[in-house]
Amino acid sequence: MNREKMISDLINNQTLWDIVIIGGGATGMGIAVDASSRGYKVLLVEQSDFGKGTSSRSTKLVHGGVRYLQQGNISLVLEALKERGIMHKNAPHLVHDLSFIVPVYDWWEGPFYGVGLKLYDMLAGKLGLGPSKLLTKEETIDKLPTIEQEGLKGGVIYHDGQFDDARMLINLAQTAYKQGATVINYMKAISLIKKNDIIQGIELEDLENEKKYKINTKVVINATGVFVDTIRKMDNINADQIMTSSQGVHIVLDKSFLPGESAIMVPHTDDGRVLFAVPWHDKIIVGTTDTPVDEFKLEPRAQKEEVDFLLQHIGRYLVKDPKQEDIMSVFTGLRPLVNDNEKSNTSAISREHTINISNSGLVTIAGGKWTTYRKMAEDVIEQAIALADLDYKPCVTENLQIHGYHSNSEVFGNLSQYGSDAPEIQQLFNENDSLKNLLHNDYSITEAEVLWAVRYEMARTTEDFLARRTRMLFLDSKASLEMAEKVTRIIALELHKDDNWMNQQLENLKEVSSNYIC
Questions:
Q1: Residue 383 and residue 424 in one domain
Q2: Cβ atoms of 273 and 227 closer than 8 Å
Q3: Are residues 285 and 156 in the same domain?
Q4: Same structural domain for residues 327 and 372?
Q5: What is the dihedral of CA 394, 398, 403, 404, to 10 degrees?
């Protein structure tokens, strides 16, 4: 997957595209996979890097949603549990089972949560990842050795899925490409082209060189997450705002705060949200908050009160209370919530998706969550087929293996997240001995992975590599800055960039990383 080739495909293809997708997050990329695997001619454009926004900033869970079960939204839970099973089946190198434990401190909590989680198991059916059960105090401490033991009566264990969101997104882009789609990052939609008030095409600008392109298409799909209203107003300046949002903050701690392989789930915090402490890439992610926001940014920033909230709440459940100086990174994501004027609390707004078709034919999909990305894509393509009068071809993604598919990727050790690509990365070691060198003494990421990301995963910047091709910026913001110069030098050599470009990359990373440093 190479950007120069994608641009060449765009330039050389002067015929009519079937579908153009704006937005390279989970929703847009899922749509690209669905449409291209049906045999349609597909173009996807993203104004920044793939997954720059919300799709790389989740709690890293593939789940039915215990909170939605509490709210009585059984249909959403059923759909998400089915999709969890499909993701696990089609991308086993990235999606795996994780055990969660609800610590019990009051006598009624065990039976209460136990019954609810048995219902969760029942709804999952044959796609369940394991049965829930009650734990004794001793069993709970064995699995959570740093749990606060004063007043502890036991726990309830259940199973859900975990994944690496940004890695999944890159693999989806590669899957779409293998199915025939053209996917381009740093390509911005700047206007919609209409004839007789009906959308006939789209004008694009390549943000790397300011070149502009006019593209003809049968249908345009707006899948830009929290930014869908920007595209809707591009179509109709008077379009109503359908999107609202809240931000969810996560803090990252050293694994010593929660050793072992199990996560903690706190079913009810002071603001009514579910709180998780989750092992991930040998760190602990604690999240999340729910703070309504009026301004949507590509780089949202955590508020001090949100960080304090997470430290305070997780401290109630750990022997050692984490302090601000213990935070290795903090990251913030914006939830794409469809406006519900009847709900004053953003945590109560449904995560179900909606599809809107404007008078000019712009198809907008809004809402949803990572776990249901595939079903969202299927739903919107069914609508697009009817709208654009495309020859009907059935959806095949329920049984489509995602790029990198490998049923036992653990055999690749530190490269396991690359799945079937891991042997090819290992082959790069033969190209140059220096490619075996580590980028940082504390982490196992090699120089070869930078080269791989640039050549085959369309990484264009230092931030692309440190934030989304690997997850260093999210895991250890200080270490990512210490790696930056080496990473930048390798990218510059591969892309034939000069010293000015390198200096600008380092300045850009320093500015962005300030959002991840507490």
A1: no
A2: no
A3: yes
A4: no
A5: -160
* Number of folded domains that form the chain: 3
Q: How far apart are CA 190 and CA 205, in angstroms?
A: 7
User: What's the predicted TM-score (pTM) here?
Assistant: 0.94
Q: Look at residue 195 and give its three-state secondary structure.
A: strand
Hey, is 53 helix, strand or coil?
coil
pLDDT tens digits, one per residue of 194-249: 999 999 999 999 999 999 999 999 999 999 999 999 999 999 999 999 988 889 99
- Give the C-alpha separation, 281 to 283, whole Å: 5
Distance CA 85, CA 354 (A): 23
Domain membership of residue 63 (yes or no) is no
Domain of 209 in residue numbering reads as: 3-54+167-242+348-399
pLDDT tens for residues 331-369? 999 988 888 655 544 444 455 778 999 999 999 999 888
Q: Does 72 map to a domain?
A: no
User: Which residues does 509 contact at the CB level (< 8 Å), separation at least 6?
Assistant: 462, 463, 466, 480, 481, 484, 488
CATH number at residue 456: 1.10.8.870
- Residue 291 falls within a domain, yes or no? yes
66 within domain boundaries:
no
C-alpha of 58 from chain center: 6
Residues 283 and 213 in one domain: no
Q: Is 98:162 a contact under the CB 8 Å cutoff?
A: yes
Please provide the distance, in angstroms rounded to a whole number, between the alpha carbons at the two ends of the chain.
Answer: 35
Q: What gap in Å lies between CA 230 and CA 295, rounded to an integer?
A: 12
How far is the C-alpha of 149 from the C-alpha of 180, rounded, in Å?
A: 55
Q: Is 404 exposed, middle or buried (0-12, 13-18, 19+ CB in 10 A)?
A: buried
Half-sphere exposure of 38 (CA within 13 A, CB side): 23
Look up the CATH number of the domain holding residue 124. 3.30.9.10
What is the torsional sign of CA 340, 87, 402, 427?
A: positive
